[in-house]
């Protein structure tokens, strides 16, 4: 604990000076009436004149600007503290409507009146998040793709056109620029402790947001434009995020004890942890997660810098150097190409990294930190289910890095289920995991085919050119041969009869194969390239299945109602005949996809040449499935061509299998 108690700040000396001292050096006082008109409008010229510029290139001189704006911020803070809530609402509430979340800004006013330092920091994090989202909406009045980074958004010509460059320069002194106070980043990345963020800067940003609303109203009246707000991100399929059991007050009470003793928690950050757990108890789920995510980052940064012997990286990086953030801490190698030692010190490295990648980084995951910090989520409706997972994960980390004298708490009957869930966690949003899900969903869809309504078999047999189903029988025979060649690479006893197709190409086998644990952490580029192609193949197969189901249902209804013309009747019967062989073909392709997942890592590492050959083969399978989507569509209905395509791809699959170029063979 000595190390943790000795850390008094995570801000480097220049950043600490800029945030905690620079804006307090000038002792000037300003009459609030100099920057506010009688009706409460911001006198922007009186504000912008405090921004200083470097003579040589007229870029913002951030040091002088912070020093000059400091007393102004103090005056604004004192002014807000002099107002009652009713006075503030009457004079300013309407100017926050442009943000689409005025309640957040009214809440910040309350915090400035009565809140502790932790609540002020939380209020500032929420304010900057909502302000960024609102500025992005304004940007879209003039531009198309809104910049992802706040610094790029604030530096854009589009916002300068609406608000004026001088106004945007004021904002950049406080947020968005690594050369300024950069309040958003130092808070969201866990560098600032509660008492290091002056409340007057939070007050000033509240004041500036109201002023921006006034400027925007004038702009919209002049241009006749209408400000549209982008919809919030809504978490769907919450069951996919369910990793930990529901947290009750008993668990949270134990967590409060663990926080005070865990070596994962810096003493200066303890108020953030306590407030986060309290917020969860009070059903303030967004607040809880907003507070916890930066603390998970700073705790992991402490481990990262200690295990990789770079203690200086614990502090805020300078503007010329990157912060040590989640992305780097979760990477396989350091920037000097040495192996990252952080996963080694985590008792369950794959679990911790997989969970963090799933919830924070993977593009198909919830990306909670990005979406919260950029204002993409409605804070009022943030789901308990998501917060439960973040808090649950945090508790398991606290347990792992607690002293031995906390053994009784770590072994408590309500904590052990959390630890068990943590040790069993598997990635849900890595591309490989998503591919597994796709395969099983596609297989479920294909399993619906036998239940499709159909006409009597004898009418299908009467189609000219299909007597005896000779073509279909040839295809079925090839599929059986391929399955026979693949048996060596499948689980034992999966073939229980002479009917290889119906005994092997089953949902049960695919579920068994998909349940095989595959390391998704640090997947090399060749593996991901293969997975991209496999996912495209799976997507096309599912599309074919959906088209067959929809088409068969529609045509059967038309058949019963006798609304099909002669050509349409023949084509419908041709479809019924074709899907008998198309089902095992698609199931075979899904089996091949699943078998590749078991061996793809070792193949790509073992034999790059064969990997390239196989990737080329996979792309030909993809081309087949894409053509299949076209031919089986309601607009085309080209079932003869479908049979020809299928014959060609099965020959190619059998040929590849014969030559032992299958990925699973290369892995053996």
- Number of E-state strands: 0
The separation of the N and C termini measures 49 Å
The assigned structural class equals: mainly alpha
Helix content: 55-70%
Number of domains: 3
The number of helical segments is 32
Oligomeric state of the chains present here: single chain
CA-atom Rg in angstroms? 31 Å
Strand content: under 5%
Please summarize the sheet with the most strands. Answer: none
What is the overall shape? elongated
* Mean pLDDT across all amino acids: 88
InterPro entries: DUF4209 (IPR025209), ERMARD (IPR039635)
Domain DUF4209: 131-211
Protein name: EMARD protein
Offer a concise description of the structure.
This is EMARD protein. Helices cover 62% and strands 0% of the residues.
């Amino acid at each position: 604990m000595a190390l943790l108690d000795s850390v008094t700040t995570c801000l480097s000396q220049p950043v600490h000076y800029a945030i905690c001292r620079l804006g307090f050096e000038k002792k000037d006082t300003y009459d609030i009436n100099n920057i506010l008109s009688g009706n409460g409008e911001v006198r922007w010229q009186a504000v912008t004149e405090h921004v200083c510029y470097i003579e040589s290139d007229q870029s913002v001189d951030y040091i002088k600007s912070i020093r000059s704006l400091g007393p102004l911020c103090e005056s604004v803070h004192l002014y807000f503290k002099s107002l009652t809530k009713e006075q503030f609402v009457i004079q300013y509430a309407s100017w926050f409507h442009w943000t689409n979340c005025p309640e957040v800004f009214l809440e910040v006013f309350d915090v400035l009146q009565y809140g502790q330092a932790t609540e002020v920091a939380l209020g500032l994090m929420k304010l900057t998040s909502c302000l960024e989202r609102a500025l992005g909406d304004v940007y879209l009045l003039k531009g198309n793709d809104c910049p992802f980074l706040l610094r790029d958004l604030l530096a854009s010509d589009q916002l300068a056109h609406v608000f004026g460059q001088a106004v945007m320069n004021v904002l950049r002194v406080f947020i968005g620029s690594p050369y300024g106070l950069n309040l958003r980043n130092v808070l969201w990345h866990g560098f600032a402790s509660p008492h290091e963020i002056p409340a007057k800067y939070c007050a000033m940003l509240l004041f500036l947001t109201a002023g921006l609303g006034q400027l925007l109203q004038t702009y919209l009246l002049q241009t006749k434009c209408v400000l549209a707000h982008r919809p919030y991100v809504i978490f769907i399929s919450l069951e996919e995020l369910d990793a930990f059991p529901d947290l009750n007050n008993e668990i949270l009470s134990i967590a409060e004890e663990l926080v005070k003793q865990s070596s994962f928690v810096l003493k200066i950050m303890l108020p953030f942890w306590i407030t986060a757990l309290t917020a969860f108890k009070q059903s303030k789920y967004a607040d809880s997660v907003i507070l916890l995510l930066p603390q998970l980052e700073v705790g992991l940064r402490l481990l990262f810098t200690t295990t990789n012997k770079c203690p200086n990286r614990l502090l805020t990086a300078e503007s010329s150097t990157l912060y040590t953030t989640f992305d780097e801490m979760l990477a396989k190698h350091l920037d000097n190409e040495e192996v990252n030692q952080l996963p080694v010190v985590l008792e369950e490295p794959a679990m911790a990294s997989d969970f963090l990648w799933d919830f924070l980084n993977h593009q198909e995951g919830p990306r909670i930190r990005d979406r919260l910090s950029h204002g993409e989520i409605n804070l009022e409706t943030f789901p308990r289910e998501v917060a439960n997972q973040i808090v649950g994960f945090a508790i398991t980390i606290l347990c792992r890095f607690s002293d031995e004298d906390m053994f009784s708490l770590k072994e408590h009957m309500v904590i052990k289920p959390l630890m068990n869930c943590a040790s069993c966690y598997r990635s849900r949003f890595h591309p490989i995991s998503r591919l597994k899900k796709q395969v099983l969903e596609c297989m479920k869809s294909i399993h619906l085919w036998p239940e499709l309504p159909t006409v009597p078999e004898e009418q299908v047999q009467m189609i000219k050119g299909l007597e005896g189903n000779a073509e279909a029988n040839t295809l079925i025979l090839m599929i059986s041969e391929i399955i026979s060649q693949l048996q060596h690479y499948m689980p034992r006893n999966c073939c229980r009869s002479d009917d290889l197709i119906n005994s092997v190409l089953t949902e049960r086998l695919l579920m068994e194969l998909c349940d095989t644990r595959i390391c998704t952490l640090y997947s090399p580029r060749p593996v991901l390239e293969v997975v991209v192609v496999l996912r495209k193949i799976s997507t096309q197969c599912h599309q074919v299945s959906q088209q067959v189901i929809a088409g068969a249902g529609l045509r059967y209804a038309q058949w019963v109602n006798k609304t099909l013309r002669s050509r349409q009747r023949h084509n419908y019967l041709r479809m019924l005949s074709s899907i008998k062989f198309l089902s095992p073909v698609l199931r075979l392709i899904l089996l091949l996809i699943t078998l590749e997942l078991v061996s793809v890592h070792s193949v790509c590492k073992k034999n790059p040449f064969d990997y390239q050959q196989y990737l080329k083969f996979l792309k030909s399978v993809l081309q087949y499935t894409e053509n299949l989507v076209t031919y089986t569509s309601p607009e085309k209905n080209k079932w003869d061509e479908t049979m020809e395509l299928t014959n060609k791809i099965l020959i190619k699959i059998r040929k590849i299998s014969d030559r032992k170029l299958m990925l699973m063979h290369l892995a053996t």
